[in-house]
Amino acid sequence: MPDINLSPFTAEQAAMDRRRKMAEAMQQQAILPIDMPTVPGAKVSHIQGLAKLLQGYIAGRKLDRAEKEQKEYEANTMADFAKIYGLAGQKETVPGAVITPAVPSAPIPENLERQAELARLNQPEAGFEAQAAIGRNLMRPQDAQQIQNLPTSTAAVPEVRAPDQQVPMLKAEMLTDPKFTKTSAGRMMLAQALMQQRAQEQAAAQAELAASRQLQAFNPEQNVGTFSGGKFNTIIQGQPKPMTEAQQLEAELKQYASEVEAAKAEDEGRKPIKFERLPKGVPVGAKRTGGKTPNGKDVFELNGKKYVGD
Fold first, then answer.
1. What is the spatial distance between Cα 79 and Cα 295, in angstroms, rounded to a whole number?
2. What is the CB neighbour count within 10 angstroms for residue 168?
3. Going by DSSP bridges, is the β-strand pair 160-161/223-228 parallel, antiparallel, or unpaired?
4. What are the contacts of 92-96 at 24+ separation with CB within 8 A?
């Protein structure tokens, strides 16, 4: 949260202070003694005393009103502070934009018409029984079943949206929304919170950018790349660790077992598969091509690439 000045100088507070000072000055003037006339023979009007009383009454009313305004202003300010403090750092889910609108289901007229024709053949109108019987005899049962199974409407396609986004709950447009904050002090606090929120977003973006540029090794293959958006992006492909002899044997046994399982589906008279270990340097899954090298070594092939055992 930003550093908040709980007694900010605002136009509202300044106006209330001015009204309070005017009421206090009026009250002070009301308790002063009536000025006696300095002209010989002049008398003090009896209305002057009444005017003093009225002035004191008005000053008291204004002071009471100023006190009430001050308490209401402080309550509204605290309410604004509590609302902003509760939303600071919080995020809300905003549905992603519609990429492809939804397509409702629609009838298929030609299929409906074909099914209607089939229904008329099965339940002909009076006088058309003979023609319907000829039509049924000419139609194969599988054709009638196929017509009955035709879809009468297209499938509804739901809309496709972009991924939902997490956005801060405090927004800049709240500064001009009179329903969100009631006081100038609340708007000042909101402005400070928005500035800190923007600073945090910029710092997070810079940190992610720095992390995306930093090369890191990723075990076990020691691929070299960067982390960005929660994913590892390989820049240099590492070499996988070579298998031990036991791992190589286990992999070959698994391959042999799969070949035996496939051979069970063949004729029973087929010659059983004889398990032979692959020479060193030949990857698991390679098959013999039937060819040999000039020095008599078998040639294997996997994914279009040929191998010769060591």
1. 91
2. 17
3. unpaired
4. 92/166, 92/167, 92/168, 92/169, 93/164, 93/165, 93/166, 94/164, 94/165, 94/166, 94/167, 95/161, 95/164, 96/161, 96/162, 96/163, 96/164, 96/165
Q: Is 202 exposed, middle or buried (0-12, 13-18, 19+ CB in 10 A)?
A: exposed
3-class DSSP assignment, residue 92: strand
Name the residue ranges covered by the structural domains of the chain: 1-35+49-73, 115-148, 245-308
Cα dihedral 21, 27, 28, 33 in deg (nearest 10): 160
| Most confident by average pLDDT, 9-18, 32-41, 57-66, 261-270 | 57-66
Tell me the angle at which helices 11-30 and 184-213 cross, rounded to the nearest 10 degrees: 160
> Cα(94)–Cα(168) distance, rounded to whole angstroms?
10
Give the tens place of pLDDT for each residue, 278-292.
Answer: 888 788 888 888 888
- List the structure tokens of 212: 């995306």
Confidence of residue 105 (pLDDT cuts 50, 70, 90): very high
C-alpha distances out from residue 251 to 18, 102, 178, Å: 90, 49, 72
Contacts of 175 (CB under 8 A, 6+ apart): 187, 190, 191, 194
Residue 195's pLDDT band (cuts 50, 70, 90): very high
Our CA angle for 281, 287, 293, nearest 5°, is: 65
- Give the containing element (helix H, strand E) for 233: strand 231-236
- What letter represents residue 71's amino acid? K
Residue 35 · residue 60 · CB < 8 Å: no
